[in-house]
Amino acid sequence: MDQKIKNNLKKKIFIKTFGCQMNEYDSNRILDIAKKINYFPTKKKSDADCYIINTCHIREKATEKVFHDIGRVKKEYKNKKKPILIITGCVAQAEGDLILKKDRYVDAVIGPQSYQSINKVIKDIESKKTQHEITNFETIQKFDQLKLIKNDNSKISAFLTIQEGCDKFCKFCVVPYTRGAEYSRNFNEILNEADELIDNGAREITLLGQNVNAYKNNNKRLSDLIYALEKRKKLLRIRYTTSHPKDMTSDLLEVYQNSTKLMPLLHLPVQSGSDKILKSMNRKHTIKEYLDTINILKEKKPKIKFTSDFIIAYPGETDQDFEKTCELMEKVKFITSYSFIFSPRPGTPAGSMKIIKTKLAQKRLITFQKIAEKIKFNYKQNLLNSVVKVLFENKMENEKNKYFGRDEYQNPVIVYSKKNITGQEKNVIIKKFTQHTIYGELMDTDKFLAA
Known about the structure:
Blueprint: H1 3-9, E1 11-17, H2 21-34, E2 39-41, E3 50-55, H3 62-76, E4 84-89, H4 90-102, E5 108-110, H5 118-128, E6 132-134, H6 139-146, E7 157-161, E8 163-164, H7 175-178, E9 183-184, H8 187-200, E10 204-208, E11 216-217, E12 220-221, H9 222-230, E13 237-241, H10 250-258, E14 265-267, H11 275-281, H12 287-300, E15 305-312, H13 319-332, E16 336-341, H14 358-381, E17 387-395, E18 402-407, E19 412-416, E20 425-433, E21 438-442
Parallel strand pairs: 1-2, 1-3, 3-4, 4-5, 5-6, 7-10, 10-13, 14-15, 15-16, 19-21
Antiparallel strand pairs: 8-9, 11-12, 17-18, 17-20, 18-19, 20-21
């Protein structure tokens, strides 16, 4: 076929992604799949022939926000040809039927385990203009199809999903209902995809899963994956998220002593500092068990630091329970924490529980976040004039000779450099910081100036 005709047949696809890193990974894989039917990514949403909203059900009023976004798409294309509009992700899984009934502008809803069907859905819509709902849990089929399609992600820091779903059934969480039961991908398929990413230029890979440390495939565990990735010479860094405290097995703890590429930062959601609340949440771990894990990791890797998630004002939380959460924060000194007031999710056991009054909940959240911010500020203050290792991910747009990277603890770092340092790991002297960013000076014979 003539190249000009081929180019004219190309169509554009735009994806708006919400939520976790797994959604970002899924969006990238959807783009890889769509290339097979001549749909190519565009950053200009107003040009899209196919517009996808990849949703997250974790945050409050998630479904309502989806309808707001659908409204924005309608407005954007009011005087243009309507794009194929597809809703994907966890809201599509949980509320797909409602979305299709409420808004005929939506052409399809596709759950997170059915992305392998997206090309067929797009083609059917092109020819028949009928609505589609695909929300089956087809995880095995999904990854059987994805392994046949090259991962074209070319970022320096790349995500790689190794596990999906959850069997823990925390009472506040929708994941078991939107992502299904725990499923671990084939060990060799993961390594093959990792090699693709490394060949594309990845120098850091973050292994993803709803319960990433529950990974198990043919007697291979997360620790085995880390050791296997350790052997990839061009790969400089390995991370994983999100972990469950119950699955911090002894073999995984040992990796922190043995691996040179696994970063010394662990995101380990605790949710509450009170055993009573943890039991009510069905978290399956106690504070003693959690702290035991923390202490073992500190012995294995003295430089390790921690981040965590907290639910404030969970139903039944007393002042004493809340104080225990604050005490835990002070004790562990999490360098970053994500804290939110409890908000019920329809269909979860906690969804019908009596919530704490808004005013009290907000007061507790403010108190907790003040403690967290003070700890974070002191941590950053101690970084001043210290030397950290930074992996540089890109040159900043509209910023002459400034490069963006992250240190071993995921802190964003910006430096000035006349040389292209993208994809390189460099020693940086920390000179100043703001709430969200750290600025440094390269330790280099050329004596680059600080930002």
